[in-house]
Specification:
Helix content of chain A: 55-70%
Protein name (chain B): NADH-ubiquinone oxidoreductase chain 4
InterPro entries (chain B): NADH4_N (IPR000260), NADH_Q_OxRdtase_chainM/4 (IPR010227), NADH_UbQ_OxRdtase (IPR003918), ND/Mrp_TM (IPR001750)
Structural class of chain B: mainly alpha
Structural class of chain A: mainly alpha
Number of domains of chain B: 2
Radius of gyration of chain A: 28 Å
Oligomer: heterodimer
Membrane topology (chain B): Multi-pass membrane protein
Distance between the termini of chain A: 79 Å
Subcellular location (chain B): Mitochondrion membrane
Largest sheet of chain B: none
Radius of gyration of chain B: 21 Å
GO cellular component, one term (chain B): mitochondrial membrane
Chain lengths: ~110, ~450
């Protein structure tokens, strides 16, 4: 991965631009090149799927899958902290009692 | 009544004896004929309110709109299932349609029942085909969880109802709706009587669902295949409302004091579920939560026991049944193409399927209660009768209407407008079957603008 070389006509990413990295240590430069290599691999994977003439289905995005799973399964990771208990009480318990009190008072005493 | 029940029963031989090429055509055709014949129930010729009766079954202006809705939905359900069942072996397709038909039978018997025990038995019986449809033909592994929630929530709610009904049978000797409407109001004073009151209503509140006990609904709706979602949203929820309206006859004087917590839950539920809808990423989940909100409004309308409240409740039940079912069908067309329910994924559909956008638009407008559609008429009647009951409810119902409008528009804009994802390249064009399915949902809503008397129920 560290011997990443970009395509002939592509521009070098900013972090690998020789004119920009005089203040980067050798380790950092190597790490940046590795990361650029990984990004290029991912892009290549996407482009292969995108331009595959036999593909009929959608391209699966693992980030989207993880995000959707996180949005739909909050209770598996729920913990009763002070904040969550306060929010739960404020929106789920208190309004019921407040509304009961308001409606009952209105109907019984004001009419 | 028999002229509808016997053809429905005869759908079983039709399904099992038709050759494979004609299975779907014959079952849809026969169920359409039954649906058209059920329209004859709409002519109420008797003065007593109950008509077309025999010893055990009758129709009255309350049950007739729901019966016609049920009969109308069967061909639509079979039409909707045709595509996703086509890879399955023939006998499994036949089993699926048989499950739908048996569900239909139980529903007709439930809505037409005159003995409350018969209504209870049919109410429970509808759970079984629905459970089988959800757990066997659903799409994700969560369907087992969904089936469990669905079954046990409803059962836990309805076992107290059985006890309450048997107690009442013991006390008053009869549970026939014909005679119960003329009995003296019961003087219910003790704590035991209050528990009896709650037991009578709990099953229906769970079914409706009321906000606190609504957890089964999003799971069941999301995991069910399209026909399961349609029948759940359109009819099974209304079983709860219908049951509540029937039981109110007997429960009278106590309801004035004991209904407050449930009205509060229903009203707060509209706002909470509306807000949850705005945060949903899953298309079917959004439509499911919107069902909870609308049914909360219906529950509020029924619990205040005024004529306008009841009328608004029935109108909203019918209109919501059609609109919600239409939205589920539209969501299914999107799901069948992209195999994903994530709204973010199937955006910008207006660019490629413009006529489908028209139907999405109409269904979203129906959901947000646009005048002159009956959705608005029902909501307006409930809101005004609740305003009469107590001025403060207007804040909640008004806010609820606002949130409903915003999430319905959000639903439309997320799925139709916006940039089309660049990697969606091979979507089938819309089949005529799908257009037909959605038109058959939307045309009755539009036609009901012209003759709402069909839906008003017996309070007018």
């Amino acid at each position: 991965m560290a011997d990443y070389r970009e395509a002939p006509l592509a521009t070098r990413p900013k972090t690998l631009d020789p004119a920009e990295y005089f203040n980067l240590s050798l380790n950092q430069r190597r790490a940046e090149e590795e990361r650029a290599g990984l990004r290029a691999q991912l892009k290549r994977q996407y482009q292969m799927q995108l331009n595959n003439p036999h593909r009929k289905e959608l391209i699966e995005d693992p980030a989207l899958t993880r995000w959707v799973y996180a949005r739909t399964n909050p209770y598996n990771h729920f913990r009763a902290t002070k904040k969550t208990s306060l929010l739960g009480g404020l929106f789920g318990v208190v309004p019921l009692f407040v509304l009961y009190y308001v409606l009952k008072t209105d109907r019984v005493w004001m009419r | 009544m028999l002229k509808i029940l016997i053809p429905t029963l005869m759908l079983f031989p039709t399904i099992w004896l038709s050759p494979a090429k004609w299975l779907w055509t014959t079952s849809i055709a026969q169920s359409l004929v039954i649906a058209l014949a059920s329209l004859s129930w709409l002519k109420w010729s008797s003065e007593t309110g109950w008509s077309s009766s025999n010893l055990y079954l009758a129709t009255d202006p309350l049950s007739t709109p729901l019966l016609v809705l049920t009969c109308w939905l069967l061909p639509l359900m079979i039409l909707a299932s045709q595509n996703h069942l086509s890879p399955e072996p023939l006998n499994r397709q036949r089993t699926y349609i048989s499950l739908l038909v048996s569900l239909q039978m139980f529903l007709i018997l439930a809505f037409g029942a005159t003995e409350i025990i018969m209504f209870y038995i049919m109410f429970e019986a509808t759970l079984l085909p629905t459970l089988i449809i959800i757990t066997r033909w659903g799409n994700q592994t969560e369907r087992l969880n969904a089936g469990t929630y669905f079954l046990f929530y409803t059962l836990a709610g309805s076992l107290p109802l059985l006890v309450a009904l048997l107690l009442m049978q013991n006390d008053s000797g009869t549970l026939s709706m014909f005679t119960l409407q003329y009995t003296q109001p019961l003087y219910l004073l003790t704590w035991g009587d209050k528990l009896w009151w709650a037991a009578c209503l709990l099953a229906f509140l769970v079914k409706m669902p009321l906000y606190g006990v609504h957890l089964w609904l999003p799971k069941a709706h999301v995991e069910a295949p399209i026909a399961g979602s349609m029948i759940l949203a359109a009819v099974l929820l209304k079983l709860g409302g219908y049951g509540m309206m029937r039981m109110m006859v007997m429960l009278d004087p106590l309801t004035k004091e004991l209904a407050y917590p449930f009205i509060v839950l229903a009203m707060w539920g509209i706002i909470m579920t509306g807000s949850i809808c705005l945060r949903q990423t899953d298309l079917k989940s959004l439509i499911a939560y919107s069902s909870v909100g609308h049914m909360g409004l219906v529950a509020g309308g029924i619990l205040i026991q005024t004529p306008w409240g009841f009328t608004g409740a029935i109108i909203l039940m019918i209109a919501h049944g059609l609109a919600s079912s239409a939205l589920f069908c539209l969501a299914n067309t999107s799901y069948e193409r992209t195999h994903s329910r994530t709204m973010l994924l199937a955006r910008g559909m207006q660019m490629i399927l413009p006529l489908m956008t028209t139907w999405w638009f109409m269904a979203s407008l129906a959901n947000l209660a646009l005048p002159p559609l009956p959705n608005l008429m029902g909501e307006l009647m409930i809101i005004t009768s609740m305003f009469n009951w107590s001025y403060w409810t207007l804040i909640l119902t008004g806010l609820g209407t606002l949130i409903t409008a915003s999430y319905s528009l959000y639903l439309f804009l997320m799925t139709q407008r916006g940039p089309l994802p660049s990697h969606i390249i091979a979507l089938e064009p819309t089949h005529t079957r799908e257009h037909l399915l959605i038109i058959l949902h939307l045309i009755p809503i539009v036609l009901l603008i012209l003759k709402p008397e069909l839906m008003w129920g017996w309070c007018f």
